[in-house]
Amino acid sequence: MNWSTSISVCNWIGITCNARHGRFATIHLPDMGLIGTTPPHLGNLSFLAKFNITNNAFHGELPKELANLRRLKYLVLALNNFVGGFRLWLREFSYLKILKYLHIPSNKPRGSFPQALFNLSSLKVLAFANNGLSGYLPARIYDQLPQLKALDLLRIEIQGEIPWCISECSNLEFSGMLYSKIVGKIPRGIWDLTMLTRLHLGGLGIEDCNRTDAYLPREDAINTLVLFFFSTVVYIICIANR
């Protein structure tokens, strides 16, 4: 990496600065083999709009000061080793009014899923797969996240039923809840989501996929289904449901 004090930080690899003010606008450092913790001073980068440190070896707790980044639109922290403190830190996200992309899968946080996170009406992608968080989806998720395109909750302890109003999330393209604690029936209206391309519902407590009152339109018990009459759906995985 060319991080040298002899050149401007705006010319460092992975750094983009705001043309007008010369302030940090983007930190894009995926797959760089970086090791360490995230310093609280990141919260001082008031012009930062994109922060991506996917697939490195960052560890420890995320600093609560990240919630000071009011211009932040994209936050991608996947495939690191962050632990603890997520619930308190995520609760601060209600201040990030223009955040569109929140991607924090495959870390090691524990605790309950903060409901305040669902108040970020600008969110388009919410991804928390393979974490130790638990909680419930809000009953009126569409009202709270009207722009939602992707909801990735694979292998986390989400409980309860799939909210019936999820069928009103007209922009939804992907929804994954494999191996969570979702129970009940699949909302009938979910098949009206014309933008939906992938729906992963394996390993849940959802009622038998073969039963017509389960509202899953499939003809047999195969694990992968292509819905030919639903032109935008590429595939649906429904593995080992009860």
From TrEMBL:
Compartments, record wording: Membrane
SUPFAM superfamilies: L domain-like
InterPro entries recorded: DNA_repair-toleration (IPR053211), LRR_dom_sf (IPR032675)
Superkingdom to which the source organism belongs: Eukaryota
Keywords: Leucine-rich repeat, Membrane, Repeat, Signal, Transmembrane, Transmembrane helix
Gene Ontology terms: cellular component: membrane
Ranges that cross the membrane: 221-240
Alphabetized Gene3D superfamilies for the sequence: Ribonuclease Inhibitor
Name recorded for this polypeptide: Leucine-rich repeat-containing N-terminal plant-type domain-containing protein
UniProt organism field: Cinchona calisaya
